[in-house]
Design a protein that fits this description.
two-stranded antiparallel sheet; single chain; alpha/beta; binds zinc ion; 6 strands; 50% helix; 252 residues
C-alpha cells in the first residue's frame, strides 16, 4: 500500500466516524454479526468507514439510495475481509444499486457459430476491475442468500484473473488441499442437482466452480455451523482463507 493511501486512510479515520445510532441499527439488522468480539466490531466499523469513503455508490435509474442502505452494503462487504483488509478487493470504486432484480443482455455464440441473444434477470453482478452491481430488494428480502457477500466473494476470486472458484491463497495454504476439498464438494453437489435432489445450498451453485465458491462463502458467514457439518473440508479451507472461524463465534 502506497504512502498516499495510508495517509488518506488515516485522515478519513481521524476526521470521520459512523454515527452510533446508525451503527447500532445496522449491526442489529444483520444477525450473522452476532458473536463478533468488541475488537472485531471496532475493526469492522473502521473498514466500513473507509469503504464508504473510497467507493462510489450510484442508484440505478434514479433509485434513491440512502445512508442506511450504503452502510448496510458496506458492512456486509467488509465482513469477508475483516481479517484480510480492503485492498484484497482490488482497485475499483463503483457500486451500482438497483431497486430490484435487473435485466442484462446476454450474447452467446454456440459451437455452430450461432449467436444467441437473450435477457437474463440478475440479483447481482461483478466485473473484474469494474463495478459491483446489486439488487437492493434481493439484499434485503432474499432469505436464503446474501447477494452482497456473494458478489464480493467473486471480487476476491477475481484477484488472480478469471473467477474460477479459487482466490489467491495465502502462503502456508496448500493449493492441492483446496482443490481436493472444493472439487469433491462441487462434484457431489452437481450430482445431487442433476438428479433433482433437494439441496441445502442454492442449486445455482452448480453453475460453475466460481458460483459454488461464492454461494458457499455466503453460507460460511451466514450459517457456519451447518456449513462446517455438511462440508467440513471446504469449511476448513474457507477458515484458512478468510482467517475467520464463524462457527466458533455463532451459536448453532
Ligand atoms: Zn455469482
Amino acid at each position: 500500500m502506497g504512502w498516499l493511501k495510508i495517509w488518506r486512510r488515516r485522515r478519513v479515520l481521524a476526521r470521520h466516524r459512523i454515527d452510533d445510532a446508525a451503527w447500532n441499527a445496522v449491526v442489529a439488522s444483520l444477525p450473522f454479526l452476532r458473536g463478533l468480539s468488541a475488537e472485531e466490531l471496532r475493526r469492522l466499523r473502521e473498514l466500513a468507514l473507509l469503504f464508504l469513503a473510497e467507493k462510489q455508490f450510484t442508484g440505478a435509474h434514479g433509485f434513491a439510495l440512502d445512508a442506511a442502505m450504503r452502510l448496510s452494503i458496506a458492512v456486509q462487504a467488509c465482513l469477508p475481509v475483516l481479517a484480510l483488509g480492503l485492498d484484497r478487493y482490488g482497485d475499483w470504486s463503483e457500486i451500482v444499486v438497483h431497486a430490484g432484480d435487473f435485466k442484462v443482455q446476454i450474447s452467446e455464440t454456440d459451437d455452430h457459430g450461432v449467436v444467441h441473444e437473450f435477457d437474463d434477470e440478475r440479483a447481482g453482478e461483478s466485473w473484474p476491475r469494474g463495478p459491483v452491481v446489486l439488487s437492493w430488494d434481493a439484499a434485503v428480502h432474499a432469505p436464503d442468500m446474501n447477494v452482497v457477500i456473494h458478489e464480493f466473494a467473486h471480487k476476491l476470486d477475481m484477484a488472480n484473473g478469471e473467477a474460477d472458484g479459487m482466490p489467491p491463497l495465502h502462503s502456508g495454504m496448500d493449493r492441492r488441499v483446496w482443490v481436493a476439498a472444493f472439487r469433491s464438494a462441487y462434484e457431489g453437489f452437481c450430482d445431487a442437482v442433476d438428479r433433482d435432489k433437494a439441496t441445502w445450498l442454492d442449486p445455482y451453485a452448480a453453475e460453475a466452480p466460481a458460483e459454488f465458491f461464492a454461494v458457499i462463502s455466503e453460507a460460511f458467514f451466514e450459517s457456519p455451523n451447518e456449513t462446517r457439518r455438511r462440508y467440513p473440508d471446504v469449511y476448513e479451507q474457507l477458515k484458512l482463507y478468510y482467517r475467520q472461524d464463524p462457527a466458533n463465534r455463532l451459536p448453532s
